[in-house]
Design goal:
CATH class of one domain in chain A: Alpha Beta
Largest sheet of chain B: 6 strands, mixed
Strand content of chain A: 15-25%
Number of helices of chain A: 13
Number of strands of chain A: 18
Radius of gyration of chain B: 14 Å
Shape of chain A: globular
Number of helices of chain B: 2
Order of helices and strands of chain B: EEEHEEEH
Mean pLDDT of chain A: 95
Strand order of the largest sheet of chain B: 1-2-3-4-5-6
Strand order of the largest sheet of chain A: 2-1-3-4-5-6
Number of domains of chain B: 1
Oligomer: heterodimer
Distance between the termini of chain A: 49 Å
Distance between the termini of chain B: 34 Å
Low-confidence stretches of chain A: none
Number of strands of chain B: 6
Structural class of chain B: alpha+beta
Strand content of chain B: 35-45%
Largest interface: A-B, 27 and 22 residues
CATH architecture of one domain in chain A: 3-Layer(aba) Sandwich
CATH topology of one domain in chain A: Rossmann fold
Helix content of chain B: 10-25%
Shape of chain B: globular
Radius of gyration of chain A: 22 Å
């Protein structure tokens, strides 16, 4: 039996450096597919999807809201060919009712221990319209290594440089942040994976550079310290969301290979300034994530925030505008106030304004979003700042003997496409 | 962020409901029978103490469930959403009240429309 697993494409943000990372959801899902099923994976962001009858069953995995409409289109096309289609993933959960209009079956929740039933039902021609495991998290011991063998790894190189692989050490989050849907997704509460299982998976990964995609590692100090201690011998170099700013945690994180962290910068306070400085003191770089368009921001606030980012010497900055994703407090609040004017999910890419901001027009916020990108990267372009970060990690890898040289055979390719060079 | 105990003025008890995809969910609830005979319900979002669906997202089915419990006429039912002050420095966790108007389709509330109320306006609605 052949299962065609698809990760739909989405339109990248205009004017930003485009890169593609190997997706995480599909490889976690694939680890739970029964052994007797052949899996063929297509990441439509880096390769062409050929929709034909050469499969028995189709799975569509979506992460982003801006991906769902393309996912539904693919589902419709396969169903027109008489193929059964199941959809799952974060944004399928956020848009489950709409997904049900396009797929034969929708999977809600986390897959561990649950996919055998789905495939058995498919074989019996008894696929359920919905497999609902929301708020029923699996035993964390069941989460084994993801199946990265389904990825066509050569497609995730840029001019011979390999992109990071995605990895997770925990699920859930204790917080309920304004723009985040983790509560609806069943993520309430922090669920760390057993550290020996984490180390088992990390030690099997052939990529030395990782992005640990956990919502936050800063939710259980002892687990965080134990995790970093266990990671030190592996010599991985990694990117993650926030880690705690306690000295003993940062020291262990640095020893464990912390390369840079994403840090939300929401104001111009000394708290933020000191936190960035503290990361830097331990050799950990910082990519600021800056959400624009919140109700407490005026035009002057946004301009002041951009100046502040330059002053605190952030290594990278990523600007987004608030996107009121379904099942977030942001969505609830803006819906109540009748401020959402655009419900085309393709526009929910965090780069397009889809609601009326409180202190300015939507057009003005759109301009300020561009202003923020342009101003922050005026003196040193984004590619140069990224190059600096890569140089840092390369020198560390050379020092500890983990450096993998650039692939010469892929030097003229970027994410599976020939690079056009101008002489 | 813990719930500000001051909001107890608008909440007498917890109310359990099944939210999206039958997710076990919980809110705060105060119901009173007003002097004019109308039933007024205040549903409070309790954030981290709510394991499932938010009040705003589920307000129409939630109001329908509260109405059934209160055994009153839909035309005599007033439903208010309350989000308590979470003591956060972020403005979107301040206390808010919204009067929710629905359309009654014969067996359930649908089409919620929200109207922001000030605390004194809520207190006046409680006293009528």
């Amino acid at each position: 039996m052949k299962f065609k697993l698809i990760y739909p494409r989405w339109e990248k943000l205009e004017g930003q450096t485009t890169f593609y990372l190997p997706p995480h959801g599909p490889v976690v899902m694939a680890a739970e597919i029964p052994d007797d099923v052949e899996v063929e994976f297509t990441d439509e962001n880096v390769e062409e999807l050929v929709i034909d009858g050469n499969c028995d069953f189709v799975g569509i995995s979506t992460m982003l809201t801006t991906q769902v409409k393309r996912g539904w289109q693919i589902a419709d096309q396969y169903r027109a060919l008489g193929k059964k289609v199941i959809m799952g993933g974060i944004s399928t959960m956020l848009h489950a009712e709409e997904a049900m209009l396009h797929a034969d079956s929708v999977f809600l929740g986390e897959v561990e221990g649950r996919l055998k039933q789905v495939f058995d039902d498919f074989k019996k021609n008894d696929l359920k319209k919905i497999y609902n495991f929301l708020n029923k998290p699996p035993d964390m011991n069941l989460i084994g290594p993801a199946r990265r063998d389904i990825l066509k790894k050569d497609l995730y190189y840029h001019k011979g440089f390999r992109m990071v692989d995605l990895f997770h050490a925990s699920r859930g989050c204790i917080y309920d942040c304004y723009p985040c849907a983790v509560r609806y997704l069943g993520g309430r509460g922090f669920r760390p994976r057993p550290i020996d299982r984490v180390v088992e998976e990390l030690s099997q990964m052939d990529n030395n550079r990782l992005f640990i995609v956990d919502n936050s590692l800063a939710l259980d100090t002892q687990w965080e310290k134990d995790l970093f201690k266990a990671m030190i011998p592996l010599k991985k170099k990694w990117v993650s969301h926030t880690i705690e700013d306690k000295d003993e945690v940062l020291d262990l994180a640095a020893q464990a290979g912390a390369w840079y962290v994403y840090q939300a910068v929401f104001d111009t306070s000394d708290y933020i300034k000191n936190r960035i400085k503290q990361y830097h003191n331990y050799g950990i770089a910082v990519e600021g994530t800056i959400l624009l368009g919140l109700d407490n921001q005026t035009e002057d606030d946004i301009k002041r925030l951009v100046d502040f980012l330059l002053e605190i010497e952030l290594d990278l900055a990523e600007f987004t505008v608030l996107a009121p994703f379904p099942h977030t407090k942001a969505y609830s609040d803006l819906l109540k106030q009748g401020r959402i004017f655009d419900t085309d999910w393709n526009h929910y890419n965090a780069g397009k304004v889809v609601y009326h901001p409180k202190h300015m027009s939507a057009d003005r916020l759109q301009e300020l979003y561009q202003y923020a990108w342009d101003t922050f990267y005026k003196d040193e372009p984004q590619t140069m700042k990224m190059f600096n970060l890569i140089n840092t990690v390369v020198s560390r890898e050379v020092a500890d003997g983990t450096y993998a040289p650039r692939r010469r055979d892929l030097a003229n390719e970027s994410f599976g496409k020939k690079v056009i060079t101008v002489s | 962020m813990d719930i500000n105990p001051e909001f107890n003025k608008y909440m007498d008890r917890y109310f359990d409901f099944l939210g999206y995809w039958e997710s076990p969910s919980r809110c705060g609830l105060k119901t009173i029978k007003r002097k004019d005979g109308k039933r007024l319900a205040i549903a409070t979002e309790i954030y981290r103490q709510n394991p499932g669906t938010a009040v705003t997202e589920w307000c129409a089915p939630l109001a329908t469930q509260v109405l059934a419990e209160q055994k009153c006429n839909p035309a005599d039912f007033i439903f208010i959403e309350h989000t308590p002050d979470m003591g956060s420095k972020l403005a979107f966790y301040e206390e808010t009240f919204d009067l929710v108007n629905f359309h009654w389709d014969g067996d359930k509330f649908i089409d919620p429309q929200w109207k922001r109320l000030s605390p004194p306006e809520v207190d006046r609605l409680l006293e009528l």
